[in-house]
Amino acid sequence: MDPELPTIQLPGFLKRALAAGHPWVYRDHVPRGLSLPSGSWVRVRAGNFSGYALWDERSPIALRVLSAERLPDALWTLERVRRAWELRELVRSGDTTALRWLNGEGDGLPGVTVDLYGGFAVVVSYADAVEPLLPWVVDALGQTTKLAGIVRRRKGEKLELLSGRKPPRELIVSEHGLRFAVDLYAGQKTGLFLDHRDNRRTVGQISAGRRVLNLFSYSGGFSVHAAAAGAAAVTSVDSAPAAMADATRNLELNGLDPDSHEPVVSDAFEFLERSVSQARRFDLVVCDPPSFARERSQLDAALKAYTRVNMLGLRVTEPGGLYAAASCTAQVSPQAFREALAESARRAKRRLQIIHEAGQASDHPVMAGHLEGRYLKFIVGRALSIA
């Protein structure tokens, strides 16, 4: 231990979670009145557990614990970055050029993610407290593999060049052999929703010959996979005109028939209500809404929103058809999501027979001691009529 570091004594009951690798300590578990500059290294103790953490002056997460062994430094960071790179070997060696290299807590670097698009790495941090890590992370990325450029995305700010050169405005990447145009400057997330990569492939595998509806479609990831797999028709619905333009562009990149794709600029709830009133139905519906809750206090409202949107989605699913539902709301557990879908099915006068369940792709690992990291839920079911 480093005697010059401030030491924070935590409640003894936290020792089991911290020893199991849970990296977060909430503000109500630290001594009252404690104030340090964000990004300060501290020692933490809870019972017989001791470790090193970064202090956050503003976030509800007051401490992010990084190591129980030694004070992190550049070499420690390099080891974590290289270990993460080795884990992604199977993804990198296939026909995919867009992946998550560092998944924050899941790779032992809480609050920091790095996404790789071709030769460009995109760094994102989620707390001021982790700023001391970033120079070490950037150096480690360049030491691990040759990169064309390293950039940083920050909400409300321009893309920041950290190393090498900036990416082109439109960068073409591959996902399971399909091509997608990404905008690293202004696209949602860092350009693509990489966590759904394998789920998009799953949708493709069940799309042949079906009329597919993709709700909250963004740049058409599920739509492209469905169309490429031989869907009879694909309807994409998103409230953003730019997203519809991106979806059309991605279909063109893959040489897919634009006449088989119906882009609809609309609020998804309103589209579903219209479709119900028109008795319009689909053979496969994909419902992947944005997060409905940012805080635990919003959980009840989020569950109500999931129940309503999936009830409407099931009502436009042909009896015997397939229904794919997703939730990226971390506050909604897998069990709570299943229960919401069961209630949706009851209200839609359907029975939902679950045939597949998954989470985020393998390049979004989760520590066993930090189950909050498993935020993505993806369920495919068959929508049966009431027996």
Helix content: 25-40%
Lateral strand order in the biggest sheet = 15-14-13-16-17-19-18
Which residue ranges are poorly predicted, with pLDDT under 50 across at least 5 consecutive positions? Answer: none
Distance, first to last CA: 65 Å
What is the string of SSEs from the N terminus onward?
EHEEEEHHEEEHEEEEHEHEHEHEHEHEE
CATH superfamily of the largest domain: Vaccinia Virus protein VP39
CATH topology of the largest domain: Rossmann fold
- Structurally, the number of domains stands at 3
Share in β-strands? 25-35%
Number of strands: 19
Q: Specify Rg, calculated over alpha carbons.
A: 22 Å
What is the overall pLDDT average?
A: 95
Helix run count: 10
CATH class of the largest domain: Alpha Beta
Describe the structure.
The protein has helices spanning 15-19, 74-87, 89-92, 134-144, 197-205, 221-228, 241-253, 268-277, 299-315, 334-348; strands at 7-9, 24-26, 41-46, 49-55, 61-67, 98-103, 112-117, 120-125, 149-152, 160-164, 171-175, 178-182, 211-215, 233-238, 261-265, 282-287, 317-327, 350-358, 377-385. It is of the alpha/beta class. The chain has three domains: 7-67, PUA domain (Archaeosine Trna-guanine Transglycosylase, Chain: A, domain 4), CATH 2.30.130.10; 74-172, Transcription Regulator spoIIAA; 193-385, Vaccinia Virus protein VP39 (Rossmann fold, 3-Layer(aba) Sandwich). Helix 8 (268-277) runs parallel beside helix 9. Helix content is 27%, strand content 29%. The model has no long low-confidence stretch (mean pLDDT 95).
